[in-house]
Amino acid sequence: MAGRAGGAVKTEWRWPSPRVHREIRLVRWGEIGTPVLLFPTAGGDAEEAERFHLISSVAPLLAAGRVKIYSLDSLPGRVILEGGSSHEHCSWLLHAWHEAIYAEVVPMIRGDCRSETIEVVAAGASIGAFNACAALCRHPDAFRSALCMSGTFDLVPMLPMGLYTENFYFTSPLHFVPHLGAGPQLACLRRRMVVFAFGQGRWEDPSQSWRMAGVLGAHGVPNRVDVWGPEWDHDWSTWRRMLPTLLAELA
Predict the structure, then answer these.
(1) Residue among 133, 124, 107 at smallest CA distance from 192
(2) What is the band of 159 on the pLDDT scale with cuts at 50, 70, 90?
(3) What CATH number did the domain enclosing 160 receive?
């Protein structure tokens, strides 16, 4: 399904995923340029970025053909926020969703770009930053860089007790990266770049980004921390300014 949104061509795909046993919905804005997979916050959906004007904020990059933005529904976030599911199921779904991103979403993006080898930029804010970082660290062969805005990287204190299972461990870069041994995954990850950006205003927790950056740095993974001032809150107005500014560098 195709249309227009904010002057950019908008296209949508849906398919039943054998990995998460749910429908995956992928939305794209723009037609050419570096592919960017923008993860929604918490339990947000694929069109959250449009409703909160993140897509409008990158309109010049879209119009110039420098990027095209993809986004998808946050299936595990939605299930966790709704409640009623077991801790084991939530942990399994988070892991399976990231497997589906690698095995289903990335191939869909590559097919749309008509390239079997093109690398994707991962981006997101808050919990979306967690997923962007996780996508890159789990699959550095598919993602070239990650832009993590106002990131929340330690999910253990905020998620249901008992979620810390093997499935969660292998999804959380804060936990599995310290134990990556020498091998192709770490070697590839060391050729990637992660940018952590955050403000010092209300609701921000800079310690989360510093901690994640420290873990990556200790393992030789290139990263940069961009500290914005106290006028920048953990909010959409901040991310609308950060996304085009920093994406212009990464794309």
Answers:
(1) 133
(2) low
(3) 3.40.50.1820
